Amino acid sequence: MAIWLTKKLFILPLFLSSFCLLYFPRKIGLTLFSTSLVAFFSLWTSYLFAKQVLTFEEGSELARKIAEAIKEGSAGFLRVQLKTITRFSFICALLIFFAYFARNSPRDSSLTNFQVASVTFFCFLTGAACSAAVGYLGMCMSVRANSRVAFCAGKSYELGLTICLRSGAVTALLVVAFCLLGIIFLYSILYLILPISYERVPFLLVGYGFGASFVALFAQLGGGIYTKAADVGADIIGKIEKDIPEDDPRNPATIADLVGDNVGDCAGRGSDLFESIAAEIISAMILGGVLAQRTNIESGMGFILFPLGLHASDLIVSTIGILSIQTRKSSSFPDVEAHPNKLAVGEHESPFSTLFRGYKISLILAGVSIIILSRLFLYTSDAPDAWWHFALCGIIGLLCSVAFIKITQYYTDSEYEPVKLIAESSTSGHGTNVIVGLSIGMISVGLFCIVICIALVLTYRLGQDSGLYDRVSNGPTGGLFGTAIATMGMLSTAVYILAMDMFGPIADNAGGIVEMAGMKGTCREVTDQLDSVGNTTKAITKGYAIGSAALASFLLFSAFLDEIRDYTGRIFETIDLSIPEVFVSGFFGSIVVYVFSGYTMKAVGIAAQAVVAEVRRQVSSCPKILSGEEAPDYQACVAIVTKEALRQMIAPGAIAVFSPIVVGFTFRFLYPYDVDPLLPSKCVASFLMFATSSGVLMSLFLSIGGGAFDNAKKYIETGVLGGKGSDTHKAAVTGDTVGDPMKDTAGPSLHIFIKLIATVSLVLGPTFVRN
């Protein structure tokens, strides 16, 4: 189905390419034409990768049955989840329509309220549909790849690693290609049919980002609650109470656990990165348009189209990096022929070294493309040095992504001291494991924040010194656009990063199928090795996503200020925290972060309790399950987790959507002492500032701390400190059950939350302004 849909979608970029070339001015048309053409070839490459993966066998009959059960469970959950999200999306779209329709008209708008409301309504639904589509297609690919990776792992280590990465690359290419095509389609239509200048069109695209963020949050919440509730339930019964291995077929929650990898780590993460890229592109286009208007530069169109060009280059450079992957022999086995009985995985370097080598190739090519595209798009005779200032901003963003990856690897990889320290603390009990693990998560926040702060200041100053001047105030400008370029630089290898992220759950599923099907040979060792690096790549993606979310939220915040200023004609550049209402709103923003995180953690706990109760019921009522004489009822656990995940995702999702609305309308309608028509907007801005800073810190702590817990357990399972089944291992499992909802539910959902509240504020900002 996924391949069929991908093939049918080829006509869209071809149509867009021809349309843009024929009906647009030369520079705009060529840019949109080439970008959509790159998206077309990326869809084709995705199709070829998928076709290659699906040519391999699925293994034994038992392996096929297990894979089919995982596929049915994943598809069943997503069908129900998408129906729920669809209803919520239409309700939200209608509320947006009426909010825009009922507001006062902007001071100098050439569009009616009805036109703006209709455009925002349509853009919201388009963004929501694209976000849901890439998540669903990602799940479709992962559930078909898992058994084939298991089969390939039995053939050779090299084949298993290559097919696992290319399976993840299918979704990664679709995510960025869909995002570009959606924005190009909307920009083209709105530019041609509406009587507005090209600089103003990006403001109308905010609905697209809102729709993408809306779906991504609920997809991540539902999938994250599902996967970690099943995982925690399976671990508590299997590893702590009954001493049976992970993914053992005697555990009734095993299939639910494997389903969770697909609906949470594949579908949820696909929608997550889609909305990250969409929010970053749209906010950068808005800032580029504002810069073009204020400076009156000759070639202002390049500042708006630059984000599209850079992400098109991401598709190219990341594909080259993925195709360059080749394993190398390990230096510890210089003469393979002298060790014919050694296992295949031991003869090679670690999977992470192989994957990171491909990433370095993409990184270098991305740096070159940033410089070339900056010269092509951002050169202006009015400020001839501006282009290389902005190119440096992009390079700084690229270096930030490397720093985030290295910091995350240090705190979550078992080769380094923090994870070993958590493992050693497990020797003295469950409590010390949790204490040390939480402390590692807190400490890890420091380096991330230092990198983010340095990047923000450096890129802002580089942009300010670019030689561009505001034609009204005659002061230097361009700082915010410099920060936007840095964010784009961070995401300029997003395709490769997402492919590495998808690598993890596919390898995890493959290992589960190997264990449940009892596949012999080196299969389990190869899949275990791939799975262990998969945990690290997933943690790296979370650190990468949170870092980019921090910069993207800053851009959205700046775009919100620009939107209010353009709507009202008033200067809106500073937020005075000495005003009690403004300070209280900021304090409320920090509170909401903790409340949201608490609800997501509680949701996993409630759903996991239901899983544990069901597993205990099955095991106690039928002792033959543990002896292997009778198969458990896997579908009972799948049904329970599906029901609880969908029910529990509503409360935290509602908090994210409605909290900025409550702040804005409270101070517009209910506050009796308002003498400043911009007070509601200032309160919302303060809310965003505090929520973003608190949310980034909390998300880093949850994601990195949870990843460290998980890899400490994996480290002990390699045989150190007593190995599997020991008291040390059981203590580490307890820490892992604490870390699971931190890293895969609360942490990822929180960084979507901070972008969603900024997008909601940007979309509804004008409605907060008093008459």
UniProtKB/TrEMBL annotation:
<feature type="transmembrane region" description="Helical">
    <location>
        <begin position="683"/>
        <end position="704"/>
    </location>
</feature>
<dbReference type="GO" id="GO:0009678">
    <property type="term" value="F:diphosphate hydrolysis-driven proton transmembrane transporter activity"/>
</dbReference>
<feature type="transmembrane region" description="Helical">
    <location>
        <begin position="649"/>
        <end position="671"/>
    </location>
</feature>
<keyword id="KW-0406">Ion transport</keyword>
<feature type="transmembrane region" description="Helical">
    <location>
        <begin position="200"/>
        <end position="219"/>
    </location>
</feature>
<keyword id="KW-0812">Transmembrane</keyword>
<feature type="transmembrane region" description="Helical">
    <location>
        <begin position="434"/>
        <end position="458"/>
    </location>
</feature>
<feature type="transmembrane region" description="Helical">
    <location>
        <begin position="543"/>
        <end position="561"/>
    </location>
</feature>
<dbReference type="GO" id="GO:0004427">
    <property type="term" value="F:inorganic diphosphate phosphatase activity"/>
</dbReference>
<feature type="transmembrane region" description="Helical">
    <location>
        <begin position="582"/>
        <end position="601"/>
    </location>
</feature>
<dbReference type="InterPro" id="IPR004131">
    <property type="entry name" value="PPase-energised_H-pump"/>
</dbReference>
<feature type="transmembrane region" description="Helical">
    <location>
        <begin position="84"/>
        <end position="102"/>
    </location>
</feature>
<keyword id="KW-0460">Magnesium</keyword>
<feature type="transmembrane region" description="Helical">
    <location>
        <begin position="303"/>
        <end position="325"/>
    </location>
</feature>
<dbReference type="GO" id="GO:0012505">
    <property type="term" value="C:endomembrane system"/>
</dbReference>
<feature type="transmembrane region" description="Helical">
    <location>
        <begin position="390"/>
        <end position="411"/>
    </location>
</feature>
<feature type="transmembrane region" description="Helical">
    <location>
        <begin position="750"/>
        <end position="769"/>
    </location>
</feature>
<feature type="transmembrane region" description="Helical">
    <location>
        <begin position="114"/>
        <end position="138"/>
    </location>
</feature>
<keyword id="KW-1278">Translocase</keyword>
<keyword id="KW-0472">Membrane</keyword>
<feature type="transmembrane region" description="Helical">
    <location>
        <begin position="169"/>
        <end position="194"/>
    </location>
</feature>
<keyword id="KW-1133">Transmembrane helix</keyword>
<feature type="transmembrane region" description="Helical">
    <location>
        <begin position="30"/>
        <end position="50"/>
    </location>
</feature>
<dbReference type="GO" id="GO:0016020">
    <property type="term" value="C:membrane"/>
</dbReference>
<protein>
    <recommendedName>
        <fullName>H(+)-exporting diphosphatase</fullName>
        <ecNumber>7.1.3.1</ecNumber>
    </recommendedName>
</protein>
<keyword id="KW-0813">Transport</keyword>
<dbReference type="Pfam" id="PF03030">
    <property type="entry name" value="H_PPase"/>
</dbReference>
<feature type="transmembrane region" description="Helical">
    <location>
        <begin position="479"/>
        <end position="499"/>
    </location>
</feature>
<feature type="transmembrane region" description="Helical">
    <location>
        <begin position="359"/>
        <end position="378"/>
    </location>
</feature>
